[in-house]
Amino acid sequence: MSPLHVVFDWDGTLSFIRAGWGEVMLAQWMEFLPALPGESVEARSAMAHHEIWALNGRPSIHQMERLAELVAERGGKPLTPDGFQDDFQARLGRLIRERIDAIRSGANTADHFMVLGGRAFLHRLQAAGVGLHVVSGTPRPFVSGEVECLGLRPIFGERIHGPTSLTDTAFHKRNAIRDIVAEHGLDPATQLVSFGDGVTEIVETLAAGGRAIAVAADEEHWHSGRTDESKKSRLLAAGAEFCIPDYMGIDSWWSRLGLGQG
Q: Which ranges of the chain have pLDDT less than 50?
């Protein structure tokens, strides 16, 4: 059995069920953030976009805390972070329910809501004896339900790590990754690889001594095979070893995982 363990982020790395969350959050921020004197809508939007994505990979309560700080700094009266969280989750929840209902009704396949080639890649890793884990900033109960909905429970089992709830600020991917290393007695340099589309998982995998691969799928044009260039730039700058748009070109980089031909 291969000693390799692979950690996946969830949203945008394997699943599109929450794709578009960034646009939902940006719309929320633009509604609540007061404009500074002379500040254009474009400048305010660019600032909000930067702040949101700087915290990508961490539980969304951290972004809500930052929103509350910015509203107050700009002279507004913010909701509490929990209040902003409730508002954001209500907006995002409508989108998620529509997608899950589409899978359950048969209107769409589960693979329609996965990054291209993701299921086949997971099966190939599983067949090679790789230990597979999800480490997400989305609350574990939500991710667990989405894993079930996409038919991935046999692959991940209960190896799903995330916040206990929407208001859990104690969870950190750093600790989750290090717990995996400790539990399985891994030599991170040779036995730990992560795939992710957020800076957090890239940085924390490298800090644990492992290797990180960036996934920069275009979440506006699913299954297009295109790379999101802004994601790619951020993730390579964070230290990712290389970047892929999806899992369709496995044969060109499979050997770099150290698993032989597979």
A: 1
